[in-house]
């Protein structure tokens, strides 16, 4: 569960701050047994954990939002348009909205932190 904070700074009221503990977010995904549970949603962005097993198939289609992937663990490749690139833990991938992309040749289970801006609508 995220931590919510409210505070007053001078005459400005900060509406809230949410904090997440990544190992707990990953554990929650495993308990839910879903490939993409979202854990953050505000109008300007959304975030979730995406899991693809070794030798798995990535069924996603292009999104109408810009997207950032951070590879938490695992190895595989991503195809963007007609280009292929190997990916591994520690890599960041930025994709523009509507860009055709798919993970493939997954040799180690992939766990990815995914951000959409604005929030994913699909």
* Largest sheet composition: 6 strands, antiparallel
Q: What's the CATH H-level homologous superfamily of the domain at 35-117?
A: Jelly Rolls
Classify the fold: give the CATH topology of the domain at 35-117: Jelly Rolls
SSE sequence, one letter per element: EEHEEEEEE
As a percent range, the share of helical residues equals under 10%
The level-1 CATH class of the domain at 35-117: Mainly Beta
Low-confidence stretches: none
Count of DSSP E strands?
A: 8
| Portion in strands | over 45%
Q: What's the rounded overall pLDDT mean?
A: 88
| Integer-rounded radius of gyration | 16 Å
Q: Report the structural category.
A: mainly beta
Overall spatial form = globular
Helical stretch tally: 1
Kindly report how far apart the N and C termini lie: 23 Å
CATH architecture of the domain at 35-117: Sandwich
Can you describe this structure?
- The protein has about 120 residues and is mainly β.
- It has a domain at about 35-115: Jelly Rolls, CATH 2.60.120.10.
- The chain is about 10% helix and about 55% strand.
- It has one helix and eight strands, in the order ββαββββββ.
- The radius of gyration is 16 Å and the shape is globular.
- The two termini are about 25 Å apart.
């Amino acid at each position: 569960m995220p931590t919510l904070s409210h505070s007053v700074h001078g005459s400005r009221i900060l509406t809230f701050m949410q904090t997440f503990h990544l190992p707990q977010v990953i554990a929650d995904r495993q308990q839910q047994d879903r490939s993409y549970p979202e854990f953050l949603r505000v109008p300007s962005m959304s975030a979730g954990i995406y899991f693809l097993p070794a030798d798995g198939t990535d069924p996603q289609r292009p999104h109408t939002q810009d997207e950032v992937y951070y590879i938490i663990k695992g190895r595989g490749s991503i195809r963007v348009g007609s280009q292929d690139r190997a990916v591994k833990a520690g890599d960041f991938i930025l994709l523009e909205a509507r860009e055709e992309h798919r993970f493939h040749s997954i040799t180690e289970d992939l766990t990815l932190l995914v951000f959409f801006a604005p929030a994913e609508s699909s």
